[in-house]
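[job 4471] stage=fold_predict status=RUNNING
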Amino acid sequence: MKAPLPAVALVLVTAAATAAAVLPTTEPIAAPATVAAAGQEVAPQAVRAPAQPLVTGLPDFTRLVEQVGPAVVNVEATIGAPTAQRSQSRGGQMPEDEMIPEIFRRFFGPGFPFPGGPGGPQGPQGPSGPRGTSMGTGFLISGDGYVLTNHHVVDNADEVKVRLHDRREFTAEVVGSDVQSDVAVLKIDASGLPTLRAGDSRQVKPGQWAVAIGSPFGLDQSVTAGIVSAVGRSNPYANQQYVPFIQTDVAINRGNSGGPLLNTRGEVIGINSQIFSNSGGYMGVSFAIPIDMAMNVADQLKTSGRVQRGQIGVQFQAQSITREQANGFGLPDTLGALVNVVVPGSPAEKAGIEVGDVIREVDGITITQPSDLPPIVGNKAPGTRVKVTVFREGRNRGFTVTLAELDESLLAGGPVRGAPGGTPRPTDSTSSNPLGLVAQDLTAAQRRQLGLEEDEGVRIVGVEGLAARQAGIQPGDVVLRVGRTPVGSASALDRQLRDVKPGQTVMLLVSRNGGSQFIAVTPRGDDEE
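[job 4471] inference complete, writing structure tokens
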């Protein structure tokens, strides 16, 4: 006897026919024909085949942990008096909550943000104990004792201890440490050690399983798992613009710093580095340094003790291009990095890249947003020739740029320029341009103070136009360019703006407080004052 249909199928069949019919499950199920009012049969509706499952089963990480666990180590750094004293507050008492950064905390061990703080077995340490402890994780990358961890785990350390899976403990030498990538290389005096194999972080995709092994809150060999949430993430809360982070929802906490992020093959795809948190603990948003980049940094640290990065010599708008800015430059979309400054004598200037260009591609890689550019260029060696595609005056143009070595002094961003000299003097002048901008010529002394070239820039002393005010133009700003055209006097500014029509977006390159940026202004005509 053949098995009856499941209950839900019986309900469907009964609803479709006068008398319920039990059909064998080995035969296809279709709604039987029904008789119309006129006595004609109505064709049965086709039944859509069920979709194939895209995810089956749950992974078992037992074998993975057994194989890779012995290569994961605990790192403990003793921090000297200067750092410990800085971390103390009110004679050694715990700092107030509002004094502790809540976004992208560096997750040290129990010693953060004060020696023996919450989350560890030790209590607050008073002035009599001037030393603190930073606890983290690391992993072996060679059998002769090289260990990778985070820079912030061993930063300012007087002594670093590494404890292996078999409980052996070694004093480690800090071979090199790089703050920009947050990668550090340690060396212990041992041989024949288990190691982890590096995977290809370029192949990591959102949705893939990921596993972390580390020492959260000092709990060695803790295993957590989750999925990759995103790749190529920038970090707007720390000065690490050269790291395209891997974002995961793997549970990461203080003490996991420097530990491996692994794929299901047991290969390292990243180094766990940061968390996004309002409380200092896990909230489902964790960030890892891609292993390809970390190994490149490690190789340079082992070879020369320092890291060299490439640069093309431009400064660009940090925010994504707005639709209004795209209209002002005639861009087909909002992709790319808008160049605000071309450093004199830089590779970009030599190649022909100009202020107002929008960098769209580097070596065929699309620049979706400005934060995509630094990792692509910075992770190439100085002397490398790259193909840069920019959008200029309605079309794409290609340039070959030979990268120079990055000048670390440029990492703060923005041109080296002072604030405008004094408060703008009142003026009885009125604007003679559609944007309602009242301008005043700069003196030679003012230009020297601002770091401007001769005949560069004009100072705004009044903003009469509503659209310009709403766009953020204010007295004291120095306008350097209208679109791609430099302006060096009030009359030149008026000439460039005189033909602007209502609804037409115009781009102004404005210098303010030591930096410069393009501001889009669209006069409307009917509401200008």
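[job 4471] summary: The chain has a mean pLDDT of 79.
[job 4471] exit 0
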